Amino acid sequence: MSSTERTFPEGFLWGAATAAYQIEGAAREGGRGPSIWDTFSRVPGAVADAHNGDVACDHYHRSAEDVELMKSLNLQAYRFSTSWSRCMPDGVTPNLEGIRFYSTLVDQLLQAGITPWLTLYHWDLPQALEDKGGWTNRDTAYRFAEYAAVMHEALGDRVRIWTTLNEPWCAAFLGYAAGVHAPGRQEPTAALAAAHHLLLAHGLATQELRRRDGDATLGITLNLTVPDPLDPSSEDDRDAARRIDGQFNRIFLDPVLRGSYPEDVLRDVEHLGLTDSIRKGDLEIIGTPIDVLGVNYYHGEAVTKTPSDEAAPQEGHAPVERPVSSPYVAASGVRSVPRGLPVTAMDWEVQPDGLRRLLNRLQDEYTGPAGIPIYITENGAAYDDVPDGSGFVDDQDRLAFFDVHLRAMKDAIDDGVDLRGYLAWSLLDNFEWAWGYHQRFGLVRVDYGTQERTPKASALWYARVAASNALPSALPSAASSTDGGSAGVVLSR
């Protein structure tokens, strides 16, 4: 990695992100109703060791403490999601007590000088709506727009940045095709219907929020990958990369930023009925102009159609007992192949150059022509953290992960990419979906037995980066990384 100090543009936004189901707990308090994740986590074999989010990080009762923690780490922005199940337990009727929790959280953030960045949907659909078909039911998109209106009525006077959906690829294809995520269905046709209705929900909610507040900053967050053909000279491998790019990236990028589905994707999935879900006017709604694109990046992948003698593992999937399927509904025989790169505890390759390439591509093909900036709304890594006697984790591997990705990000800015902020994933160790509590992404360690929070070495380093708006010339030594330093980090260990 480079040892040169790198200064970011003035006003660059530094923050961290979380999601409601992963941290809040209080699953049966304050009038909250069950979500699809409450239901799915109780399906035998669906989540590692039958873990669930009933308690999680107990953020519902500890939001004031967590906001003070954010302030001590010099975070300028906090991206959180509101739980549809807490705010509208049946999907349609407002629950004032649940909404009040987020109103209080927003006030706490503003009092701490932290910008609240609200995501309306991070996968916790009310079970009452799933019982009516969930995202395969077109009506859910309209209920989502009503939910957006309710939340804006309550918070719009103080929240200025709104994200409609987080990672609709996961909600649609991991949830309805692979069965890896809630609601756990394995129906390719349903997954494509869900993808379209999620996009429609985004467009309808964007229109509703825009109607209510023309000055709000509105966007969507997409998780994106960089698929490379394992053998660039192989026509089959090039087609494999095209299919993954189409069914992961372009199936969402093109409707949102170009107002149409890619023709090759439509051909690939023609037999699965996507066009049956598309009605006149839908793409105009989906293509409603946005102000920012949120990008979640974890890794790229090398893909091939070459058969293997070994059974292909479901890359990055939790070791669960319940059988799962491929999320790629029209990429039969395509598999990812390790390239010998370092990997995280999730077996995800560490590939910072993929982030630079992705950002340049977006600038050239999507966000640049649309005239909108990019924010990294998630980037981070799970590692096998080992705390010392005081609970402190000297996570040099995670610290190095952040360093190389931030340097790649600065390279992209120098290339001309309009990138304006970075929100690390995640503020806290938390419930990691089908992995349960077995994977830790947090800047801050959570002792799930006591709920004690302890910033890791990566958090102290990141606090200094946020305070200085610059990457240091070299990584800290393990000895110095435990020092709170001069970046305003206040710790009680």
From TrEMBL:
<feature type="active site" description="Nucleophile">
    <location>
        <position position="378"/>
    </location>
</feature>
<keyword id="KW-0136">Cellulose degradation</keyword>
<dbReference type="InterPro" id="IPR001360">
    <property type="entry name" value="Glyco_hydro_1"/>
</dbReference>
<protein>
    <recommendedName>
        <fullName>Beta-glucosidase</fullName>
        <ecNumber>3.2.1.21</ecNumber>
    </recommendedName>
</protein>
<keyword id="KW-0326">Glycosidase</keyword>
<dbReference type="Pfam" id="PF00232">
    <property type="entry name" value="Glyco_hydro_1"/>
</dbReference>
<comment type="similarity">
    <text>Belongs to the glycosyl hydrolase 1 family.</text>
</comment>
<keyword id="KW-0378">Hydrolase</keyword>
<dbReference type="InterPro" id="IPR018120">
    <property type="entry name" value="Glyco_hydro_1_AS"/>
</dbReference>
<keyword id="KW-0624">Polysaccharide degradation</keyword>
<dbReference type="InterPro" id="IPR017736">
    <property type="entry name" value="Glyco_hydro_1_beta-glucosidase"/>
</dbReference>
<keyword id="KW-0119">Carbohydrate metabolism</keyword>
<dbReference type="InterPro" id="IPR017853">
    <property type="entry name" value="GH"/>
</dbReference>
<dbReference type="InterPro" id="IPR033132">
    <property type="entry name" value="GH_1_N_CS"/>
</dbReference>
<dbReference type="GO" id="GO:0008422">
    <property type="term" value="F:beta-glucosidase activity"/>
</dbReference>
